[in-house]
Design a protein that fits this description.
Number of strands: 4
Oligomer: single chain
Order of helices and strands: HEHHHEHEHHHEHHHHHH
Distance between the termini: 82 Å
Shape: elongated
Helix content: 40-55%
């Protein structure tokens, strides 16, 4: 007799590897029994949602049910059949999802269209912040659903996440980031920078801003640099964010007859002494 994997049977119709795994699960089972419930009603509910057009992607995107959870529930894993039991918290989350009679009914009141959030995130990437950096700042999981949101493939988003993104956008829209690859990615995809958007209409799907792409002038550099200093950013970091070295920023001030910030003069002088 052989195990389902084709290896010789050790006990209970299982090979040595599968039997050891089964034995470990049995020992751990006693610790989790109180937290487990019958999986069949949950599985039936997932199938009803599928029949109504709600697939794995939307379950994860709209309700936070991981793709792997649904796969284990319906098909099992590693040679085992569909789950016979599931954690109560998971069952409760899935069973609370309403089976819609139409696609429109699937959007709950705590979810709003994701377009404005996508525009804000894309604008911050265009402003020099990587997708990974923004996800860390927001405290979101780095998964497929989040990437879909950046790419504009999500239709709806929970209100809390939309609010988090709006707050971050207001904080960073006038603070240039330092990630050149992020800017290049945004440019290649046609993502517009923060100042291209009218904040009162960024959530409006009918609104398309007109943007004239022009190179940064000296006044733009001075404005960005001085704004960064006023926000408490150090001279070296502020210089890097406008794409120059402190000495180069200082020379620009001198060439245009502008008064150089004292902090910049001090840093440029110190760097010149160190270099010599």
């Amino acid at each position: 007799m052989t195990c389902q994997c084709g290896k010789p049977v050790k006990a209970r119709g299982l090979c040595d590897t599968h039997y050891s795994r089964h034995h470990r699960r049995q020992r751990a089972y006693g610790r989790w029994t109180a937290d487990l419930v019958d999986a069949q009603p949950v599985r039936d509910h997932v199938l009803k949602l599928r029949d109504a057009g709600i697939g794995n992607k939307r379950l994860e995107e709209e309700f936070g049910v991981p793709h792997s959870t649904v796969q284990h529930l319906l098909y099992g894993q590693r040679g085992y059949g569909p789950s016979r039991q599931v954690r109560k918290a998971t069952a409760d989350r899935i069973l609370q999802i309403p089976v819609p009679r139409s696609d429109v009914e699937f959007v709950r009141q705590d979810r709003i269209p994701a377009l404005g959030t996508t525009r804000r995130l894309q604008a911050l990437v265009a402003n020099g912040y990587s997708q990974k950096d923004l996800i860390v700042r927001l405290g979101w999981p780095e998964n497929g659903s989040t990437s879909e949101l950046f790419l504009g493939r999500c239709r709806n988003i929970v209100v809390r996440k939309a609010q988090d993104a709006a707050v971050l956008f207001s904080q960073l829209q006038l603070v240039p980031g330092t990630d050149r690859k992020a800017r290049q990615r945004a440019k290649a995809k046609g993502w517009m920078p923060p100042l291209a958007w009218d904040e009162d209409r960024i959530d409006d799907p009918t609104y398309t801003p007109e943007v004239v792409d022009r190179p940064k002038t000296a006044e733009d550099v001075f404005s960005d640099f001085e704004y960064l200093l006023s926000m408490g950013v150090g001279v070296e970091d502020a210089s890097r964010r406008v794409g120059l070295l402190p000495a180069s920023v200082k020379r620009r001030y001198e060439r245009h007859g502008r008064r150089c910030p004292a902090a910049l003069t001090a840093v440029a002088r110190q760097q010149r002494k160190t270099a010599s």
